[in-house]
Amino acid sequence: MLSEQRETLHRISELSPDAARQQLMTRLEAELETECAQLQNKIIERAKDSSDQKAREIIAMAIQRCAADHTAESVVSSVELPSDDMKGRIIGREGRNIRAFERATGVDVVVDDTPGVVVVSGFDGVRREVARRSLEKLVVDGRIHPARIEEVVAGTRKEVEQIVKEAGKQVTFDVGVHGLNGKELELLGRLKYRTSYGQNVLQHSIEVAMLSGIIAGELGLDVQLAKRCGLLHDIGKAIDQEMEGTHPQIGADLAKRFNEKPEVVNAIARLPLHRHRLRGRRHLGQPAGRAAREP
Looking at the whole model, is its pTM more than 0.85? Predict the structure, then answer.
């Protein structure tokens, strides 16, 4: 009966079994293409919504886990004096002491009417720290003359250089990034005395390294490589006042000299994409205008 029915249907439709099968497949294929396209669009939209939400969750979680205090930008350091009589000794006869001090340290010394305070001014944070410590030692010692100034400044410079190296070593230990050479450690340590966008650059580099590691972990990427990129991304700021070019360019060149991986060099060179810091400052309540004016 089934065979007879099949033959009857073929005779009525005037189609062979192969032709009937092909016609059915063609019709089903057209219907399936439409349904698949609709289903694909739904999946893509759902993926976009979920990916945006997941990205926000990862970034928010990383920031919450790695929040840190921020410091105000400053290019001056104050040194307290036991009495205003010390100002005259710092200046010296016809200004010879203050000129010798400024020549030895490379910073400016401001002696004004402010009681009990002398201001050391300079854009280079390391030089300013050397000058501040040297002046404090000279004030305590009481012997202030050109020869003594040069001696104290030379000793203090070595002391600060050691502090810088120790700071670089400590940072790599805290963040968990290893294998940096001595020059890289020194440059990282110099960032301890540099501020940008109202924040200490070394502290900022630590935050970026930790955030990068957290986000990389959430995305299943190389955590150590991400931390290394984050820690070194601002290393050019350690010497950008001594060389021509932007600090991303300088940092990328330094990374190449230190034989860093191409991924690290690329992360440093593409620093202009990190404009999120301006938005971050606004989120933290810092006026946007001030952030935009800072170097």
Answer: no
